[in-house]
Amino acid sequence: MAQSVLLTGAAGRVGEAILGGLADDHEWRLLDRDPPTDDQPGEFVVADITDEEAVREAMAGIDVVIHLAGDPRPEAPWDSVLTNNIDGTQTVFEAAVDAGVEKVVFASSNHAVGNYETDERTPDLYREHDDYLLDGTELPRPSNLYGVSKAAGETLGRYYHDEYDLSVVCVRIGNLTRGHPPIDYERGQAMWLSYRDCARLFDRCIRADYEYEIVYGISDNDRKYYSLERAREVLGYRPRDNSAHFDGEEQVVEPDT
Ligand SMILES: NC(=O)C1=CN([C@@H]2O[C@H](COP(=O)(O)OP(=O)(O)OC[C@H]3O[C@@H](n4cnc5c(N)ncnc54)[C@H](O)[C@@H]3O)[C@@H](O)[C@H]2O)C=CC1
Ligand SMILES: O=C1O[C@H](COP(=O)(O)O)[C@@H](O)[C@H](O)[C@H]1O
């Protein structure tokens, strides 16, 4: 059944991947502080997520929130992640609970756990023969202040689930690139998320039933050091792409096959 979905940060790259695959599958309300540059499905709300009133208005009649808006830069300074990623995320969770939203899908990041990639473990960790896997049950070990803000968002989700029974899934997104995996970047190839697997994963986050979950958001890469077990089991995610199927030449993945 089509769900009424509020997508924050809709004008960005992850928003583009989600809408590229799912524009016709749900009823969309899009929100971003930047206005759209081209035609978009549904209604577009130009607002900042730190604007409580605007966020509250945008929640009316919504079943599911996909919360992407924020500063995505691993090198982002504290004042920006504090405002956009922590304060903004709290505003979104609070408004979702008040509006009776069923589920919030939170865009977390590989950088919430980036410091598991110790000097001893890397670069072997990024290679197929290495069987070390993070599975989402580990504590955060952020690699920068941006990663700290994502760990804070996951904790906000835990609180709003436990206190208000909101269904929450935190997706620790890897490295989203369009068409092919990052070139000459082993870490990026290990955590590649193709555009079409991104759409598949977020579709499952919209449709599946869950309580509080942390899952990894990557394609089914041979090199992976993030487990897909939980995303498969709880969400029914079935990724189709694998960075190993690219040899450095331009092999473009068709948008929706
Ligand atoms: N692209 C990737 O590979 C990854 C992305 N993520 C997370 O996914 C989310 C989306 O990332 P991208 O699409 O790559 O970034 P992006 O920069 O392309 O898109 C983010 C969007 O959020 C909007 N935005 C930022 N702050 C806002 C605010 N205060 N109020 C309203 N809108 C605001 C921006 O205008 C932009 O359109 C971010 O939370 C990021 O941390 C996490 C891991 C990997
Ligand atoms: O969280 C994010 O992670 C990806 C991958 O990190 P990188 O340090 O290997 O580039 C990054 O591209 C994205 O901008 C960021 O939001």
UniProtKB/TrEMBL annotation:
Record key words, sorted: Carbohydrate metabolism, Glucose metabolism, NAD, Oxidoreductase
Class of the enzyme per the UniProt entry, highest EC level: oxidoreductase
EC number(s) reported in the record: 1.1.1.388
Residues at which NAD(+) binds: 84, 109, 146, 150
Domain NAD-dependent epimerase/dehydratase: 5-176
InterPro entries: Epimerase_deHydtase, Glc6PDH_archaea, NAD(P)-bd_dom_sf
GO terms, molecular function: glucose-6-phosphate dehydrogenase activity; NAD+ binding
Pfam families: Epimerase
Reactions performed catalytically: D-glucose 6-phosphate + NAD(+) = 6-phospho-D-glucono-1,5-lactone + NADH + H(+)
Pathway: Carbohydrate degradation; pentose phosphate pathway
Example of a GO biological process term: glucose metabolic process
Positions annotated as active site in the UniProt record: 146 (proton acceptor)
Reported function: Catalyzes the NAD-dependent oxidation of glucose 6-phosphate to 6-phosphogluconolactone.
Quaternary structure, from the entry: Homodimer.
Database matches in HAMAP family: Glc6PDH_archaea
Protein name: NAD-dependent glucose-6-phosphate dehydrogenase
Organism: Natrinema ejinorense
Source organism phylogeny: Archaea, Methanobacteriati, Methanobacteriota, Stenosarchaea group, Halobacteria
